[in-house]
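User: I'm putting together notes for a lab meeting next week and I want to include a structural view of one of the chains we've been expressing. I don't have a solved structure, so I'd like a prediction I can at least talk through. The sequence is below, exactly as it appears in our construct file.
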Amino acid sequence: MEEPQQDDLLELEETLELQELVARVLASRGRDAAAVLPRYKQIMIKYQEQPQLLDGCLEGVVQPLAALLRDHAAAAAPPPGAGGAHPGTRAAAAEVGAVCGVCRLLHVLVTVRGHKTVVRFFPHEAADLERVLQVLLAVRAGAESAGQGDAAAASSGAHDDAALAAWEAQGVLLLWLSILVLTPFDLRTVDSSVGAAAPAGGVTPLAARIVELCQGYLDHPGAAREMAALLLARLLTRPDMRPALEGFLGWQAATLAAAHPAKLQFLLPGVLQARAQGRVRAALHAGWGAALAWHRCCGCGAADVFE
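Assistant: Thanks for the context. Below is the predicted structure for the 307-residue chain, given as structure tokens.
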């Protein structure tokens, strides 16, 4: 019988250690997330060259962490209609802190393995959509009130670790929203601000808020901009979001025309990324009719659909 190689034994030891780190986070309900992060990240970074080697343990790491994140999101979400302003109680602030801690662990996995692989293990129930949006707004509001609203400064170390944690959490929550909006459901059914007599053809306040929020991320370099562009592309290619698509395209034209050159260098890549992902998604998933409609709205010709 062939002896196990030293590399195989090391990989097994690290897999077991990862499971122990995750178990510690779960047992503490996320309070130990910051404590385990350095070692957790140290193990994960080793797999950057061959991230597929993580696939064997990916489900066992992502699913329990994502489930814990969902629990904290439910507890941390401000009441519907609060506009993203957090109540400010100690308990609520602790829940938002736990959200950020768990998101940081998931962010490491997204960085190493890629968001397409990791997000498959996230919860994707339609009922989570409004809740996750409210938590994202709470995290964003908390970061802005603490003077942590600059993604570039946070990533460069100009702010403390809390700023980086807030931005990584926003990126993960935007990614989660991007998978939730793919679920085939009527957005009116999960929007608490919509009454029974809401017009069938209009854009719900919930969807409009997501679009507005994503637009605000497009001039921030980093993962949050990338995830916001992805979320926009997925949301605006839904069959029921044509009015919102036209509104977004009007916004981008006006905003790009008025932007200062210093801001434009960050905003333009975000806008182009959202448009490019929307074009691909429209062509691959929504059929030729929707794809051509997207391209006409974007000012692109039919010949550009598959460029």
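A couple of points you could mention at the meeting. The two ends are 53 Å apart (CA to CA). Residues 261-285 form the longest helix (25 residues).

User: Perfect, that's what I needed.
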